[in-house]
Write a structure and sequence with these properties.
Helices cover about 45% and strands about 15% of the residues. By secondary structure, it is of the alpha+beta class. The chain has two domains: about 250 residues, Regulatory protein AraC (Jelly Rolls, Sandwich); about 100 residues, Orthogonal Bundle (Arc Repressor Mutant, subunit A), CATH 1.10.10.60.
Amino acid sequence: MAWYAAYGEIQKQLTGYYKRTGNRMQFPEIIDYMYNKGLLLEERPNTRRELSLFGDMSDEEFDNRLDRVLIEVTPRMAVNKEVLEDEIIPLRRDVFVIRHPRDTRPYEHAHNYVEMNFIVRGEAEFFFNGESRTMTEGEFCIIAPGSRHDLLISGTSLGFCIMIRKSTFDTTFFSLLTGANLLSDFFRQIIQNGGGDNFLLFHLKNPDWAKTAVRCALAECYAKDDYSNACTISWINLLFAELLRNYSNTVTFYDYTMGSDFALVLQYIQHNYKTITLSSLADFFHYSEPHLCTLIRQKTGQNFTDLIKKIRLQKAVEYLAGTNMKIAEIADLVGYNSADHFSRIFRSEYHVSPAAYRKTAGKAEESFIPFQMEEGSEQK
């Protein structure tokens, strides 16, 4: 049997219970509490659609409008450390967006779907693998399946949670992550491996566009017509493109098994690919060379030599397609001392000479520009 409650009523009960008792509840616990108090609705009232494309609303206005939206809830659902996507994402939905409840009791859990948390006002306490950190306004966190985590939002802070079925992420959104850049390489690894204990944290200097996309995706989740699921997916696709296009250089990677921020290694490689050696990279980060080789293989799917060659050749492709520089000049710019050696390496990869490639540059592969924006564009 389906039961219903408005966002605002659920939040009222969560906050009220916390203020009266000093204790917090998890979401399933407050739904049971409301069920026992007779506060859940057995039928969905015929109400007008409360949400639309409210991109220009203030956070407070949107929050108040969202308070009136009814959601379907399930009483007597256990609080589990392992949450499956069918328990939280509605049937026939590939993506589900909610306003994250405030004043809940932290309880680290893992799930088999991709979760994204976005703080649009105030701050939140992010628990991950027994540790905690503060997420601030404009931060956007993507959590890999299997990672133990939770999020605590209190007061007037505002955050949204986006949940994507694993199968949907692999088929529908994965195309955005197949680009020739280090971020995509890393993202593919943590999603494909599914080993858990990983997250990506973006720092959005101007989160307004992302906030609009999340609002619109949330609105589509409750539209319940033949187009709403596809529209939700489209908004999240646009959101991913926004993150990868404009905020790749702000990302923080977390890998618990490594115990450090691998983004620093990747960014150092990207900025020093012309002259870098495995030995100099290991010395800079105080790793042994075998350990560093293992990390690079795990996080990018390639060994060090192939990774450097890929960066150099894709940068050469950019110069061939976009400039009139001589082949020898391009070879020197991307780190090859000899134009002949560069040409041999290029031919072995692309099966044509650099000069022949330049003639068909309009049909060539896309440029490889990891962790930077296209020249002349502005970060949002």
